[in-house]
Write a structure and sequence with these properties.
The longest helix is centred in the last third of the chain and has 23 residues. Helix 8 crosses helix 9. The two termini are about 30 Å apart. Helix 1 links the parallel strand 2 and strand 3. By secondary structure, this protein is of the alpha/beta class. Strands 1-3-2-4-13 form a five-stranded mixed sheet. Strands 8-10-6-11 form a four-stranded antiparallel sheet, with helices on one face. The structure holds zinc ion (ZN). The site of zinc ion has 4 residues, from loops. GO terms for molecular function: dipeptidase activity; para-aminobenzoyl-glutamate hydrolase activity. Pfam families: M20_dimer, Peptidase_M20.
Amino acid sequence: MGTYDTGKPGPTIAFMCEYDALPEIGHGCGHNLIAAIGVAAGEALKEVIDEYGGKVLVVGTPAEENFGGKVSMAEAGVFDEVDVALMVHPGNENGVGARSSALMPLKFEFFGKSAHAAIPYDGISALDAAAMSFVQINLLRQYIKPHTSIHGIIKDGGEAANVIPDYASLEYYFRAPTMSYAKEVSEKATEMVKGISEANGTRVEVSEYECPYEDTVINYKLANLLTEKYQALGVEEIRPVNEVAAGSTDVGAVSYKCPTIQGNIKIVPDNIGAHTKELADATISKEGEKGLVHAATGIALVALDLLENPELLEEVKAEQEKTLAKLS
Ligand SMILES: [Zn+2]
């Protein structure tokens, strides 16, 4: 984390950097650009913040693709004193943020008793409990609210057909528009699995096998500010906040700690998706460089506006408080 402290009272503005790449593809998610955008915006704000007071942070947030660096950093208190966190993700459109799904990853492990499958009455099949749980969780789908999804696999189901398996496991993602609902659904599933395990005479252990991701809290005031700055810079076709979640991100964890924006900047044509070689190539092209300058300038100008007009920052924070109160 890079910090510049004016030593004078004022807001703390954080620019977030990502930098992890993908196997084989390289920077197919453009996190190398996110790093450059954050550093550039931080440097720019550092040049002027002495006039106003406050602090600039450039926060390196590793491993967005799988372990959710921002989640553990948020838990460790990195964003507790931050007033606003800003970042921009490159891709195939210009935008001012999007919702993301909360994700609760649960693993169910069943422990039974192995036996030769020709004398199955000496054993207790962990796989039977897993298979019944898999079916029961499928039945649960009828009762869940819209935009919520359950996807799971049988991770372990035994090694040989002539052995009653004493161990089986299921891995699930429970995704929902809010963390509280993702937890509610995953708790329902857990209760069902416990009942099934008992009925089968197995023992079950339930654990979070990956990092849970919170949904992203949208701050429309911040989104409007970035829209204004993008327009002033000549950025065209700016998509408003995308209200339909298309996945999950560790930015969600930060958005519960402070008003946060993850904007978007277009560096590839519409038909090129994320996690592609084409996007990786674009990050080091002329288009990538243009996107870098627009995105870094855009979020630096948002930060400057908040420093120059403390009442704007108050509005951003008031909206955040109101939204969080509704979610809890
Ligand atoms: Zn990404």
